[in-house]
Amino acid sequence: MPFLQKLFGPPNIKRLSARRNIKGLLKALGYKASFVRVAAVRAVEKLKDARAVEPLITTLKKHPEMWKAIAVALKSLVPFTDAGRCAEVQALVHEAEVLAKIADLKSGQRPSVNSPSIFRGPRLLELAASAELLGELGDLRAIEPLIAVLRDESKMLIETAAEALGKLGDPRAIDSLIAAADKILSEAKFDVASRTGPDGEIYERHPFEDGPLKALERIGRPKAMQAVEELRQKRRELQKRASK
Asked: What is the DSSP letter of 130?
């Protein structure tokens, strides 16, 4: 097979897709080059052919790094799958989505020294969407990756990760949520001067610490609830100090 692949070159995914050549596309899932496999997965997804379920599962096992693309393809095939296989395919979709989103967070949550958050706008939105979905999926394997996000420099991303951790409700996140809320409050600017723009308009401060605080409330352990009260008291004191 490798010799033939070198001799004839990569399959023309666009042509195979246009001809609805499902057999050719499924064969392309075994091609050595990852860009060909990913293109084949995306083409198979559009054809909505249930014959692709088994080859996609096989590809998933051989190339776990392709979880993200294969999850989308399998999800699109659920309505076209035999009733007896639906539960299995849905379980694989869940598995794929969890691992894909965890991998997404691990690959892009921390900026480099030369790449501050102001230049991460679109990527931050993608990461926030991954964090949010992990909270919805309810898989506890997401706990550690989400905790790691609480150390990010983006307060928006921290808030989203905290909300996801609150939905998961695992007490392992308590200490990190407390630290995140405390750090946000310590860096917050409550005084009017700091919130006045160049046009003289006073901007409302967004309470990013509410994400970790609400997560702690959802977890509900005594340590979490005590921290919530102490952090809210700290916020009241900072607000009072700033108003003088």
From this structure: H
- Per-residue pLDDT for 149 more than 60? yes
Q: Which residues contact 120 (CB under 8 A, 6 or more apart)?
A: 111, 154
What is the DSSP annotation of 133-162?
HHHHHT-GGGHHHHHHHTTSS-HHHHHHHH
Of 123, 145, 223, the C-alpha closest to 179 is 223
Residues 156-181 have pLDDT tens digits of: 999 999 999 999 999 999 999 999 99
Query: Do 157 and 180 contact (CB within 8 A), yes or no?
Result: no
Lowest mean pLDDT among 53-57, 93-97, 185-189: 93-97
Residue percentage of the chain with pLDDT more than 90? 45
Question: Which structure tokens are listed for 193?
Answer: 């001067």
Report the candidate in 25, 3, 30 with the shortest Cα–Cα distance to residue 12.
Answer: 25
Contact 72, 94 (CB under 8 A): no
Q: How far apart are CA 223 and CA 163, in angstroms?
A: 18
Q: State the pTM of this model.
A: 0.71
How many residues are listed for the chain in this entry?
Answer: 244
Question: 114 falls in which pLDDT band (50, 70, 90)?
Answer: very low
CA dist 213 → 62, 180, 204 (Å):
42, 9, 19
